[in-house]
Design brief:
YojJ-like (1; alpha+beta; 53% helix
Length: 287
Amino acid sequence: MTDTTFILITRVVAVGPELPLFKNILVAVAEILVIFLALYGIHRMVRGTRGAGVVKGLIVALVVAFTLLYTVATAIQLETITYILNNFVLWSVIAAVVIFQPEIRRGLTHIGRYPTAWHSGTATGKTLREVTSAVLSLADKEIGALIAIERNVGLNNYAEGGVPMDAKVSAPLIETIFYEGTALHDGAIIVQNGRISAAGCFLPLSESELKHTFGTRHRAAVGLSEETDALVVVVSEETGAVRIAFDGRLTGALNKDNLLTTLENMFAQGLRKGPMTTRRQGEPDEA
């Protein structure tokens, strides 16, 4: 055996035991990166909701627990701590599913959407005009109202909880339903395929952060828009302000000059960026 061969074998033997350690560290870094990116994506999805703070906490815990502890524990072969940290990933996934159930459901709903069936410009236009006329009249009288207009995601589950109607959409009928003292004025109207399918419906309340000036109707409007792609028109009975909830957001206060146009543009183009404001940046409830 030559001196060169002996030196080479000696180096391989010396470096060999370090290779698994180096590999473990690389795997740990890769795991940290993947989990961090996943949590960051979840954080962007739940911004403005109560779950946002929890995600931030998980990210901090990830950085501390994995970047520091896992790397050190792997380097000095602390098997118990390494085992606990490895299982921390599984526990985090289970906790995320439980904590972010509403957001996950909302995300799956968005994935399951299909192309809109509202292709009849005449029928859609007439429906929106009748809704607009009724809403503006109710707003002038400061009568609260909640009208959910179905788009791609079905609203049958919510309509079944109300009083069946199957009536033509008309401003006088909508106004009559929401007049104080009527049996159905506290619930929501569901509009499907250009007809009022049900009234007196209860909508899911949003758990997102809303301004304290927004009441139960606004929270219900945002709640339904978080779970479906419906347009939900809400009238405040305190101020008469009219807003539209869509995709978990509320517009600024709308009036006779822009309500119909906003509704039509939302149907034609999807989420309208211009007048939309986030839940955290809602405008004052002016009329």
